[in-house]
Specification:
alpha/beta; Glutamyl-tRNA Synthetase, domain 3; 2 domains; 14 strands; zinc ion binding; metal-binding; nucleotide-binding
């Protein structure tokens, strides 16, 4: 049900490392419905910074697949590969304000510290200046000795003591590529995103991104993290784990399966308008309070990956890659 409020801007930010799969469709549909439920705008960003993993043509196939579901962005598509100047300006500002510093440590040296909840915590070797004879390899954010908390609309309060649990984290890698945390914050602000809807596997990134927003004096986004779809081995569905492409699947059944996993009301698949009408109906009845609060959910309770015949009203999706 639509409720009045400030204009909501949502976004979906896939990486073009292959075609969309069922897990990414759940995230895309959730972000779209969450914005459209309150007459908001929905934007698309292609997170193509990690160039060694980018698959040629994958961005076009992703866009075609989204549009086949009626998930059409309300503005220009942003490509992170075209945003290097914005990231450089942000990093320069952080260094100038004392929030970031150059680091000359190798990967092995940086991981020599104690182990935290998310892996080795940077030992602070270069925090107060590069050791003699060292040159900068990466740039790190200087984190405070305090707890940063984010209130997620589904998962509740997420608190992280940055120094004790994460340490000074990389914002520009040794290979010159801008790190995910910084690029995401800078681009969300540039696109005017007000609410980030994504999978709960990224929940722990939220306090770091909130602190980056504070350091860069950027607007604070709201967060909504949906359960991550996993397989029978509790592995996240993803391109790296061999998750099936959406190509050749019945889009109507896929939409129903996604909505079922998100706890949403059943939508009709028999009326005119095809799958786009189903998505519009889902947005009109979107109810965040019905989304499961646990971080992962198995795809099998709603029948797994549907394999019935494709909807003739939806164009064929391109085959993967070659």
């Amino acid at each position: 049900m639509k409720t009045p409020g400030a204009a909501v801007v949502g976004r979906f930010a896939p990486s073009p490392t292959g075609d969309l799969h069922f897990g990414s469709l759940v995230a895309a549909l959730a972000s779209y419905c969450n914005a459209k439920a309150v007459d908001g705008r929905w934007l698309l960003r292609i997170d193509d910074l990690d160039t060694p993993r980018v698959v040629a043509g994958a961005d076009r196939r992703i866009l075609d697949q989204l549009m086949a579901f009626g998930l059409v962005p309300d503005g220009p598509i942003m490509y992170q590969s075209e945003r290097s100047a914005a990231y450089r300006d942000a990093i320069d500002a952080l260094v100038a304000r004392g929030h970031a510093f150059p680091c000359g440590c190798t990967r092995r040296e940086a991981q020599a510290g104690r182990i935290g909840p998310e892996g080795p915590i940077y030992p602070g070797t270069c925090r107060h200046g590069l050791p003699r004879g060292r040159s900068a390899r990466s740039i790190r954010l200087r984190v405070p000795e305090e707890t940063i908390a984010v209130d997620d609309r589904i998962q509740g309060r997420v608190a992280q003591h940055l120094a004790g649990e994460v340490g000074d984290f990389v914002i520009r890698r040794a290979d010159g590529i801008t790190a995910y945390q910084l690029a995401t914050v800078v681009d969300d602000a540039a696109q005017g995103v007000t609410e980030v809807v994504r999978g709960a596997d990224l929940l722990s990134s939220s306090p770091r991104q909130r602190y980056l927003q504070t350091c860069l004096e950027l607007p604070m986004t709201a967060y909504l993290h949906t359960p991550v779809v996993v397989d029978d081995h509790n592995e996240k569905l993803g391109k790296r784990s061999g998750a099936l492409s959406l190509t050749g699947q019945d889009p109507r059944a896929l939409v129903k399966a996604c909505l079922g996993l998100l706890g949403q009301s059943e939508v009709s698949d028999t009326g005119p308008g095809g799958v786009s009408a189903m998505v519009a109906q889902a947005a009109a009845h979107w109810d965040v309070s019905r989304i499961p609060t646990y971080p992962t959910i198995n795809r099998n309770p709603v029948g797994g990956m549907p394999t019935s015949a494709p909807d003739p009203t939806v164009p064929d999706w391109p085959n993967n890659g070659n």
